[in-house]
């Protein structure tokens, strides 16, 4: 019979990674929890180390007998496992829409022929892809797959054609909901949805109006409404949180695939919440919509609070840092200012040839943007700044694009914001901003501060307009509240 002091020691063929994997699996499956740990200490009146070791005995090696002699190695192991235990519990705190669908044994899909709009970012909280989850589900048939911009594999660079074909693992047909060699199919066709009873949407977006996945969502809903096909949105967190709202709204006449809706650049909704708004306010004919809501998510949460692993949403958004940086620097790239795309730090740098990096750093930091600071950066002979953004205390991220333009015009010789742009670049600048007004204001020399403050009324109005569509509050709801919001009901879960 083995004892606790016989536990394999770290460094003897056993790594913290192996214990982490074991504990993560147990916590994710609900085999153990922080509550069990607290109760053990309270009832047994044992030390932290004893409680952890008893959990190890009960859960990992149930054949072990309790030994009151604790070796230094076993106590060290317990301490390391405490960190693992905390991390694992956090990882299990957020239950995504797809997790809730799995827990229900796919009840809403029973007897249906289903299409799935997804890419690698559509995965459950254990990292299993939505394609695998639905393909291996029972009682329904997954028959078609649809990929947004960047393709169903998420690897196609921005703006490049995607491809139809077959999924290599399931052999299901794949339809590109973007530009293809055969033509533009950003809006699905009736033939694509032919034979479907329901379309499931599971894609992680960035919480930014110009990131095109939410435009695909609206087009999917629009086509489904024509033939009364149900749309089921598996909800996911907004990586910027559910409180932050900022940036200009959309002007009439500038609507495009990178700005389809009259909402601020940063709109502060989850995909499910936005789908409710789209159905009520954008579509000429509402679709039959169901949202499968998350559990454990609240509006103040940023991505780091969820315990979820970031899965790249597109080639230039491989990390959560890039996801945040997209809002802070994405506009700059449209007019030729280097923001790091294609390099190791996409959307997190601002640089150019022979720029005075030390001056730019000091001047940027003198702006005292809450939660944002700059440090010197050099790459491939170009100089500039690297942005460090505190996710929980960041100032107006959208405004950074225009504060950077102002800084460059004052500190970089021969810099002109539109001086080296062509008509296509200026057109895309307008579309991403949702209006032509900002470009004209910058060209006329209007102060950046005035431009930023001109967004305030639209932001305040949106804060009121979005209220009927909020599914999550500032604190957690009752744990027994149902997670399925059907038939366009907007009662919070």
Strand content bin: 5-15%
What is the number of E strands? 13
Question: What is the subunit arrangement here?
Answer: single chain
Low-confidence stretches: 1-49, 56-92, 489-493
Q: What is the level-2 CATH architecture name of the largest domain?
A: 3-Layer(aba) Sandwich
In words, what does this structure look like?
With 493 residues, this protein is α/β, with parallel strands linked by helices. It folds into 3 domains: 4-91, no CATH class; 97-301 and 467-486, 3-Layer(aba) Sandwich (Rossmann fold), CATH 3.40.50.12170; 320-453, Aspartate Aminotransferase, domain 1, CATH 3.90.1150. Helices cover 36% and strands 13% of the residues. The protein has helices at 16-28, 34-44, 48-60, 72-91, 97-103, 130-135, 190-193, 213-226, 271-282, 303-306, 320-333, 357-365, 397-411, 423-433, 437-443, 448-453, 456-465, and strands at 113-118, 141-147, 165-166, 173-176, 179-180, 183-184, 198-202, 230-234, 288-292, 349-353, 372-379, 382-389, 484-486. It has an 8-stranded mixed sheet, with helices on both faces. It has a 3-stranded antiparallel sheet with strand order 10-12-11. Helix 1 (16-28) packs across helix 4 (72-91). It is globular, with a radius of gyration of 25 Å. The model is unreliable at 1-49, 56-92 and 489-493 (pLDDT under 50).
Element layout with pairings:
Layout: H1 16-28, H2 34-44, H3 48-60, H4 72-91, H5 97-103, E1 113-118, H6 130-135, E2 141-147, E3 165-166, E4 173-176, E5 179-180, E6 183-184, H7 190-193, E7 198-202, H8 213-226, E8 230-234, H9 271-282, E9 288-292, H10 303-306, H11 320-333, E10 349-353, H12 357-365, E11 372-379, E12 382-389, H13 397-411, H14 423-433, H15 437-443, H16 448-453, H17 456-465, E13 484-486
Parallel strand pairs: 1-2, 1-7, 2-4, 7-8, 8-9
Antiparallel strand pairs: 3-4, 5-6, 9-13, 10-12, 11-12
Helix pairs in contact: 1-4, 2-3, 3-4, 8-9, 11-13, 12-13
